[in-house]
Amino acid sequence: MPNQKTIIRPATRDDVPLILQFIKELAEYEKLAHEVVATEELLTETLFGAKPGAEVVLAYADGKAVGFALFFHNFSTFLGRPGLYLEDLYVKSEMRGSGIGRKILAYLAHLAKQRNCGRFEWWVLDWNKPAIDFYRKLGAKPMDEWTVQRVTGEALDKLAKEWQE
């Protein structure tokens, strides 16, 4: 597919059904479909409402939607600058290996530089060897000395209640 025309563009409110479709496809691939609770209404509000929490870009090859990336800004206190954090990257299985993922990442790296970000980072599931190999070829380095911590569900509710006590 070397001659395909690829377009990467910011998503709009009208793209919400497609974004949700890609989220569900990604969740299937990651064996996490049971965790998807997002709806079109929720995505519309959180991505395109008064205070958007993230941004999305869509990838098209020869006019067909083939992938997406959802990202947001974080901040490095040590660098004193924002960073760009990639939450999700997904390319349809039949398009993997065609350069679409690399083009999405290059687009986001360019955006990070335009926005004066000091870094561009993401997580990858430790079992996803094809993705890990791909990221190493791009020059991405693992941050093995860091361990992700997460509070969610009942633990989040319990911790939040401590503020009110």
Number of domains: 1
Oligomer: single chain
| Distinct helical segment count | 5
Overall geometric form: globular
Biggest β-sheet: strands ordered side by side in the sheet = 1-2-3-4-5
> Residue ranges: pLDDT <50 for 5 or more in a row?
none
Biggest sheet architecture: 5 strands, mixed
Q: Which structural class should the secondary elements be placed in? A: alpha+beta
Number of strands: 5
Beta-strand portion reads: 15-25%
Q: At the first level of CATH, what is the class?
A: Alpha Beta
Distance between the termini: 60 Å
Assign the CATH topology: Aminopeptidase
Q: Specify the helix fraction band.
A: 25-40%
Quick check: average pLDDT? 94
Query: What CATH architecture label applies?
Result: 3-Layer(aba) Sandwich
SSE order, one letter for each helix or strand: EHHEEEHEHH
The name of the CATH superfamily reads: Gcn5-related N-acetyltransferase (GNAT)
Radius of gyration: 17 Å
Descriptive overview:
The protein starts with 5 loop residues before the first strand and ends with a helix. It is of the alpha+beta class. The chain has a single domain (6-164), classed as Gcn5-related N-acetyltransferase (GNAT) (Aminopeptidase), CATH 3.40.630. Strands 1-2-3-4-5 form a 5-stranded mixed β-sheet. It is built from 5 helices and 5 strands, in the order βααβββαβαα. The radius of gyration is 17 Å and the shape is globular. Helix content is 36%, strand content 24%.
